[in-house]
Design a protein that fits this description.
The chain is an alpha+beta fold. It has six helices and six strands; from the N terminus they run H-H-E-H-H-E-E-E-E-H-E-H. The structure holds zinc ion (ZN) (2 copies).
Amino acid sequence: MNYKARLNAIGLKATSQRLTLMRQLAMQGHLTIDAIYLALKNERPLLSLSTVYNNLSALVKRGIVKEVAIAGERQVFELTQQKHAHLICRKCGAITDVAADFAAIRRAAVVPNGAEIEEGDLIFNGFCARCAAAEHSDVA
Ligand SMILES: [Zn+2]
Ligand SMILES: [Zn+2]
């Protein structure tokens, strides 16, 4: 389904700003609100941050965009897709999608008596492919 159809299907008008926002997320994968703002501002110099924020919130509320669960400091967003884990690069901070079998992880989890898990996110720390390659070439 294209973006216009996806927006219409959930009752949102496919404004050029929303379409650009989704295209940017599709191209870049994971973006902070500031990065989204900068990308959109390129096309529309008069754009305000609050407008971008409102559009983003509308997309999050309707499940088209998802906030990536990374610990603390930054808020990062991505287009909603099949559930996956994230690898955060220790060196450059890049966020890489990692496929993971969440049903198997859920089955393997030992839940304390009386407690209930509803859902979870999985974060790996390490190095992105580029930084890992750089590390190894330093050694050689
Ligand atoms: Zn990196
Ligand atoms: Zn992701």
